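#lab-general

N.A. 3:47 PM
ok so I finally got the sequence cleaned up, no stray characters, all 490 residues accounted for. can someone with queue access submit it? mine expired

B.Y. 3:52 PM
send it over

N.A. 3:53 PM
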Amino acid sequence: MSIKFDSLKDEINNCFYDIVGILNEVIKHRTDSFSGMIDISMEIQKGSESFVGETDKIVGVISSDINHKIDNLDMDKMKQDIIDATSTFIEITEELELLSYNTICRTMALGDKGATITHISKEIKKYSTTVKTLLEVISVNFNDMFERFKNVADHLVDNKLVQDDSSLNVEAIDEIMITSDVSILIENSQFHDIFMQELEVIQEAIENINYNDAYEAGIVFGKYEKAMGKLDVIKFALQDKLVEIKDVMGDFIYTFNTDLQNIVGQTNILRSELNRVDEMSESICSTISMLKNTIDQSKDVLHKTKNSVGMLAKQSKTFRNLVVITAVEVARINDESLRRVVFSMTQTETELNELINKLFTNIDMWNTLRSDFMGTFSGAENDMQMLCHSNVAEDRKKILGDTHSLDGQLEEFKKIFTAEMYVNFFDSNSNKLAELFDVFNESVQETFMELNDSLSEEILSDEEFTRGRNDAEFKDILAHEEDQSTIEFF
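B.Y. 4:20 PM
back already:
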């Protein structure tokens, strides 16, 4: 049995190393590619000239337009209006719950005569609970929307579209533009040792099947049970970790490719009038597109929020019906104290409708703000088209040739470095790991059944067996994962 488990562990370990090999290959491509491209960018820098022309004029107009909107924007006040409205709404619903409780107490004293109003009061309490839930959704959506707009505003305030100094250098580019972080991949390549330690612990537990009495038999049995339970935990933890690593690798490949593109463009900014136009424009276009997409994505949030407020309005109509029915019943019962309840409910209905209208008004304001931003960014995109795709003058062809050389290297690299290939290879090894863990699990279950069959009824029914089973201890490696995270495995 030991030979079988050792063989399975070796296969699992080899599979782990294949996955780590994928990550290391991605890291190697990143490191090797950057050095060559930076060398070319330095050659371009030797013959570069700085200039201020039509690019600065167009970008200046765009920056002025955007900055004007930011300077006149008071999103904090808009957010506070929502907070105040929802807080007031919640206070009113809580008052409704209290009113509902008091009414129930009053009408129960009236017996059958107040049964209908008692039922209505319970419905009012349900209404309050539903409204609170809707308000929580609305509050979350508004916070989401506020953060989207605030991120755009903060980005525009903290990051200029054009640097004041048009003479950049390689160090500045390296600091500003390189976004792919190799350390993230390295960190995630050091994950498998913990899982292998878990398998070692499990193997050690299940291979020690010797016992001299019922208590020791219970210990062995209990360890088996814990081992099988732990195997499921390990499998799911590994699945989660592999999904996480795949996401990290995908993000890294994406940012790595973005870095490569940015290096091509940023070296152009450093070297010549045309290259500065081309790459600075690409950078601005990318930023504007990103900000525009951020604003555009708020459309769905606004739509969901408006639907939630619409549901709130429908609930308000339901409450209105309850008010009318209550008024009719109170008139029938002719109880003076209940008339005050109707008056209070009517006032509450009015306040709720006012708050709902305020929420709708605020949504309209956010929609207007979104449309305003979208118009600005769409106009900016149109203005930048001529710069992002400008025709190159004859006297700039030499520098353009150098940039094309850099582009050529990038295209050649793309043929070698394909995300699909790495993702498919990663998926294949991940699936293989899952299969190996299943086989390992089945083997453990088989040995457990053999152990179970070997135990007599006398032992199984012995109290010492039960005590040993409960006393069985099992080392948990994953529970101390943070303590292991700083260990270097390679």
